[in-house]
């Protein structure tokens, strides 16, 4: 079964750091681009960052550029989001998402259940 | 950034009737070298992550019922549900993957009339 399982979310204070992880199974992880997408409960979807299959190309939304970094470890079938200088507006459910292609982005065909990040003092 | 604007924001349709959701991009998402429209549609039911319905504007994802169809080109796109079923109650999002940031529409909430 194809599966993405996120972890690492929680309550953190503004200005602090957090690392989200995503464990992939059921497919050849290293063959596909991967992304993080976030959603404030009850609101819409916001793409956060994406990385191609071999980590050669990545992109980040302007709202997180310079604060968040997406990385991957193909040997461990894992995706990460390194989050620093957290702000209250980063509060959201963060989804790990599989791309249908190996390049930076086509459509997103597999989504995890998400991990909740709350930034508050 | 490419802005994706959906209409309407909410929609109530009777069971068995057709539901139509529109999406307009602020610039063309048709890539001339391959003649493909870089648009996808997703369905999100309450308490669940989104599910991919169609990509390349009109290619149905494997396992998606054929009552769901996507159409359009350039800047104007449509998701049509030909005969609404009770399980289709959800929020629907369009997305462009033509250029980063890969933006979503604001969502359309579909309910049963």
Biggest sheet record of chain A: 7 strands, mixed
Helix-and-strand structural type of chain A:
mainly beta
> Could you tell me the mean pLDDT of chain B?
97
Query: How is the main sheet of chain B built?
Result: 6 strands, mixed
Query: Helix fraction of chain B?
Result: under 10%
Largest interface: chains, residues each: A-B, 21 and 23 residues
Globally, the shape of chain B reads globular
Strand element count of chain A = 11
| Helix residue percentage of chain A | under 10%
Separation, N- and C-terminal Cα atoms of chain B: 36 Å
The percent range for strand residues of chain B is: over 45%
Radius of gyration of chain A, in angstroms, nearest whole number: 13 Å
- Global morphology of chain A: globular
Regions of chain B with pLDDT < 50 over 5+ consecutive residues? none
Secondary-structure class of chain B: mainly beta
Provide a descriptive summary of the structure in words.
The complex is a heterodimer of chains A (about 120) and B (about 110). Chain A has about 120 residues and is mostly beta strands. In chain A, about 0% of the residues lie in helices and about 50% in strands. In chain A, strands 2, 4, 5, 6, 9, 10 and 11 form a 7-stranded mixed sheet that branches. In chain A, strands 1-3-8-7 form a 4-stranded antiparallel sheet, with no helix packed on it. In chain A, a hairpin with a 6-residue loop joins strand 5 and strand 6. The N and C termini of chain A lie far apart (about 40 Å). The model of chain A has no long low-confidence stretch (mean pLDDT about 95). Chain B is an all-beta fold and about 110 residues long. Helix content of chain B is about 0%, strand content about 50%. In chain B, strands 2-12-11-6-7-8 form a 6-stranded mixed sheet, with no helix packed on it. A 4-stranded antiparallel sheet of chain B has the order 1-3-10-9, with no helix packed on it. The radius of gyration of chain B is 13 Å and the shape is globular. The mean pLDDT of chain B is about 95. At the A-B interface, strand 5 and strand 10 of A face strand 6 and strand 7 of B.
């Amino acid at each position: 079964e194809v599966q993405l399982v996120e972890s690492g979310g929680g309550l953190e204070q503004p200005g602090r750091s957090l690392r989200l992880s995503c464990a992939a199974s059921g497919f050849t992880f290293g063959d596909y681009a991967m992304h993080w997408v976030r959603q404030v409960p009850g609101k819409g979807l916001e793409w956060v960052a994406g990385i191609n299959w071999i980590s050669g190309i990545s992109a980040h939304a302007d709202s997180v550029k310079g604060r968040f970094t997406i990385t991957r470890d193909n040997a461990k079938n894992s995706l990460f989001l390194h989050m620093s200088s957290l702000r209250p507006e980063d509060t959201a459910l963060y989804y790990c998402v599989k791309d249908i292609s190996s390049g930076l982005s086509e459509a997103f065909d597999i989504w995890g259940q998400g991990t909740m990040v709350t930034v508050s003092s | 950034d490419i802005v994706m604007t959906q209409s309407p924001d909410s929609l109530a349709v009777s069971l068995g009737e057709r539901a139509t959701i529109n999406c307009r991009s602020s610039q063309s998402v048709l890539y001339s070298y391959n003649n493909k429209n870089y648009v996808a549609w997703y369905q999100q039911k309450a308490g669940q992550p989104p599910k991919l319905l169609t990509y390349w504007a009109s290619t149905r994802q494997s396992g998606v019922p054929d009552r769901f169809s996507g159409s359009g080109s350039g800047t104007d796109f449509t998701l049509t549900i030909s005969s609404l079923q009770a399980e289709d109650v959800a929020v629907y999002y369009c997305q462009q993957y033509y250029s980063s940031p890969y933006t979503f529409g604001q969502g359309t909430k579909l309910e049963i009339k």
